[in-house]
């Protein structure tokens, strides 16, 4: 579920995974539950800056003694450049150092542990360039065209890349 306006976007989400495993050779029932909840906030600032953060909490029940609870918190700062054709972003991932690198799988006649490599908290500087004009194609950003998605014209928000700008009198308000 997401709330959106020109200045702020707030979203929440959740999920539940339930598994019931029965072994006919050894009458042991293994019930596991994975609960996940999370949310995100995006703040659109003046001068085409943006700040965003997201958190996801996962708890797992019914596994062996391995604690699988983790709270992952990520954040980013971005700046739209070149007339909304590019975005420079600085991201920090797993701020709280909670990412786990072991997974337990319970099958009908086995318990398996898998370990994998994970990056600890890290920073990522990125540049994204939008290529939106192809030979023979109509430019979807022209007035009167509606293009949905990041940076696109959304009839309920008034566009993504031109925050706060006046686009002329041919737009309708909903």
**DSSP strand tally:** 9
Supply the number of helical segments. Answer: 0
Strand content: over 45%
Rounded average pLDDT = 77
Describe this structure in words.
It is elongated, with a radius of gyration of 23 Å. Strands 1-2-3-4-5-6-9 form a 7-stranded antiparallel β-sheet, with no helix packed on it. It has a two-stranded antiparallel ribbon with strand order 7-8. It has no helices and 9 strands. With 174 residues, the protein is an all-beta fold. A hairpin with a 3-residue loop joins β1 and β2. The two termini are 21 Å apart.
Which secondary structure elements does this structure contain, and how are they paired or packed?
Blueprint: E1 2-4, E2 8-22, E3 29-45, E4 49-61, E5 70-81, E6 86-93, E7 102-106, E8 111-115, E9 122-129
Antiparallel strand pairs: 1-2, 2-3, 3-4, 4-5, 5-6, 6-9, 7-8
């Amino acid at each position: 579920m997401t709330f959106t306006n020109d200045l702020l976007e707030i979203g929440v989400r959740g999920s539940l995974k339930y598994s019931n495993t029965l072994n006919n050779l050894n009458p042991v029932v293994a019930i596991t539950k994975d609960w996940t909840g999370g949310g995100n906030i995006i703040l659109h600032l003046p001068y085409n800056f943006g700040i965003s953060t997201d958190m996801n909490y996962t708890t797992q029940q019914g596994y062996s003694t391995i604690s699988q609870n983790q709270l992952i918190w990520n954040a980013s700062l971005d700046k739209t450049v070149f007339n909304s054709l590019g975005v420079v972003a600085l991201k920090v991932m797993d701020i709280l150092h909670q990412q786990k690198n072991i997974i337990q799988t319970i099958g009908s006649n086995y318990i398996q542990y898998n370990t994998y490599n994970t990056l600890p908290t890290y920073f990522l500087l990125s540049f994204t360039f939008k290529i939106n004009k192809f030979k023979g194609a109509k430019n979807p950003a022209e007035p009167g065209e509606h293009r949905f998605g990041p940076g696109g014209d959304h009839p309920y928000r008034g566009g993504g890349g031109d925050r706060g700008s006046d686009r002329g009198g041919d737009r309708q308000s909903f």
